[in-house]
Amino acid sequence: MNIEKDKNEIEKTIQMFFDGFDDLNAELINQAFYNGKIEMFTIGESGKLNRTPVSNFPKWFEKLKKQPDNIFVKEKSKKNILYIDITGRAANAKVEYIFSTFKWVEYYNLLKIEGRWYIVNKIFETLNPE
Fold first, then answer.
1. DSSP assignment string, 90-129
2. What is the CATH number of the domain that holds 22?
């Protein structure tokens, strides 16, 4: 097992997600997730758990593309991988997206399946910028 090689491959998977988000390209996002059927979780304003299937990205992106003033269309976020922790074929990564008016902190759980790293789920929180 080569930790540096695995770390580089995980970074490529995360970059695929970043690129898909920047280009509002659901196909790239789906390639980063195992089978494109994974769910994302966050706590909403009401304090209740929100579940969002990755399969919602195509509809969401098409809607955003029709709104040129939407922050996701007009402003690319600054993205950072804050850490990657690997144990065998399992890994966790913490990333942040920084926009002018808010920030997301996301945690990706990844598995190495059939020789390739995939995001298998993610949780995130929306914060005010620091």
1. EEEEEEEEE-SS-EEEEEEEEEEETTEEEEEEEEEEEE--
2. 3.10.450.50
> Which structural domain range is residue 32 located in?
3-127
> What does DSSP assign to residue 82?
E
- Digits of tens for pLDDT over the chain (130 positions)? 699 999 999 999 999 999 988 888 888 888 898 876 667 777 777 778 877 777 777 888 888 888 888 887 778 889 999 999 999 999 999 999 999 889 999 999 999 999 999 999 988 888 886 6
Distance CA 18, CA 11 (A): 10
Distance CA 113, CA 10 (A): 12
Q: What is the structure's pLDDT at 130?
A: 64
Compute the distance between CA of residue 23 and CA of residue 41 in angstroms, rounded to an integer: 22
Domain total for the chain? 1
Nearest to 36 by CA among 50, 23, 25: 25
What is the distance between the alpha carbons of residues 81 and 57, in angstroms, rounded to a whole number?
A: 22
